[in-house]
Write a structure and sequence with these properties.
The protein has 232 residues and is of the alpha/beta class. The protein has 2 domains: 117 residues, Response regulator (Rossmann fold, 3-Layer(aba) Sandwich); 104 residues, Arc Repressor Mutant, subunit A. The chain is 40% helix and 22% strand. A 5-stranded parallel beta sheet has the order 2-1-3-4-5, with helices on both faces. The longest helix has 15 residues. Keywords: DNA-binding, Phosphoprotein, Transcription, Transcription regulation, Two-component regulatory system. GO terms for molecular function: phosphorelay response regulator activity; transcription cis-regulatory region binding. This is DNA-binding response regulator. One of its GO terms (biological process) is regulation of DNA-templated transcription. It is found in: Cytoplasm.
Length: 232
Amino acid sequence: MKTILIVDDEPKLREVVSSYLKKDGFRTLEASNGKDALHNISAENVDLVVLDLMLPDMSGEEICQEIRRRFSVPILMLTAKINEEDRIKGLSIGADDYMIKPFSSRELVLRVKTILRRSGDGELLAEQITYNDGELKIAADKQEVHVKGRLINLTPNEYKLLITFARHPNRIFSRDELIEKILGFDYEGGTRTIDQHVKNLRHKIESNPKAPQYIVTVFAMGYKFTGGGSHV
């Protein structure tokens, strides 16, 4: 049974969302502020966080960044902001998806299922692949990524993006292909979302993100993953 943490300061919203999730077989936890949210994630086996941006003790952006710093749990952001730049900002700090209030609880449940399905899809045929004499190592058996011996905390979307590239070295992926593979065919956002995920991933695995050696931009076509790896 998957556990969903609902973080919102509106008791009625938490109650409604929790009810819909429970009907679909999920276990739910609730938190009305950032402090309680972080405690729940530390103490419980949380599979996904539904996170409102407007909270009493700290902003949703701050909580999202703190979750990303410490955990790899997927995050679905809730917000009243409708501007595309706000959505891009949310994704840039680690959210996996974004819903605008007011929303349908049935749609939220569908989004939760989609995110969980995506986050469980990232698999490599080999248990481990290393690149550049071990500088980058993907341990698929543990779903861990190390750069220069240091464990890197990737979001589920970033991990799946890296796995997708690593399974198809030197293949050029268009942005639309990556959206379908990473975010799902029903994703309605623009291609800038993929650009942001690539940018975030580069900052975590590249020695120089402005001159990447792994994830390379192919002008007018998309991205490809370069560099031969050794499989174990």
